[in-house]
Amino acid sequence: MASILLKHIYKEYTHSKKEAKKINEGDLSPFAVRDFNLEIKDGEFVVLVGPSGCGKSTTLRMIAGLEDITGGELYIGDVYSNNIDASKRNIAMVFQNYALYPHMNSYQNMSYGLKLRKIPKVALDKEHHVIYTVDKDRIKLLKKQIKEAKTPEEVEPLVKELEKVENDKCVPKMKMVHYSKEEIDERVQKAAEILDIKHLLDRKPSDMSGGQRQRVALGRALVRDPKVFLLDEPLSNLDAKLRASMRSEIVKLHKRVKTTFVYVTHDQIEAMTMGDRIVVMKDGIIQQVGSPSEIYDNPMNTFVAGFIGTPQMNFFDVKLIAKAKEVVITLPNNKEVSISLKDLRDIQDEYISGEEKELTLGIRGEHLVLGDKGIDATVSFVEILGNTTNILCKLDGSEIEFNVTVQERSELTSGDKVKVSFLGKNVHLFDKETGKTIYKYGLEEVKDEK
What we know:
The chain is an alpha+beta fold. It is 29% helix and 30% strand. α3 packs across α6 (181-195), α4 packs antiparallel against α5 and α6 (181-195) crosses α7.
């Protein structure tokens, strides 16, 4: 197991002439990943989530060593890893398309990497005694120190120590050997038992379902006993039922092996249900990092608010002005709603100075209530999902549509008139120009980043 530290990571690709022109005009960023800073704790399950092209898979591939890092520092454990070859990082990766050999059965697919891999082992002589050699790492360090020494007084003790170390065979000699057949079989059988695929070991990929293939791909990663698991959208090719089943399987696997997991997905449901922490990305930049509940309840900007949650959060362009102990919000249809300041979360001082501010109001469908009072709206469409009902409404006096989610079955139909209300504690307010939250928790996030 190992922690991962990414410090000011940048990734830039070679650009076409067309892309270079857009970059020069300011319409396109030259970086696929920009100033990425993240510390992943040992044994943590972290999910990188965002739309296509946001840089999440590129970040994962840089951790794996499959992509060069343009700028910044990567540490796996306490080891600076920018220039360490992918094969020497002891990282296992699971891909979207499984990447199983079609001519091999499950056992052969899981064991093939172990057959090729070599591990260090103490060298023994014919009498099975340990063979000792000089400490090459210590010799290398002493030679470097001698080279950097500036005075004869500094050099002399280092030279004496070097002579001593070069003649002192005190370190067990290591040789690189393959795993034995018994070791390989033990690892494969153990992984197959954990993933409940022992009955599939003789089957080829063509004889298995998508979920079974994905379990085999996980097993191939598991047998390596890696320090870190990297999973790049492993469930994208599965149907909805299998995805739900495999989500729980991967979470159970993480709890069982207690290894660091970094999981990439564009599906916010996977992110919310699987990760200890979520990293929301857009255009190569981290938008917010936090637990699923923190991301859902306290989004830092309109992008995070709109991306996380199903159905998407409702947004309204509004005007806000503070009056005494309340704020007056003017909706797009010019109707005014008054909310007591004590019912809202703490707002940054500059937004309640008495001047009118143009903002974006966000509220989730499950926080809107249909009743006898509130703002007037007309039902446009009713979507029955079984355990919940989504009611698409149009704000009277405007073209704005918004979603109301209710737990019970609704008898409403298109064209019905309704009144919609909400509680101040469920309202999200964002600066219209920057898209950032105007609540004070946004200032705390900025402080943490600094």
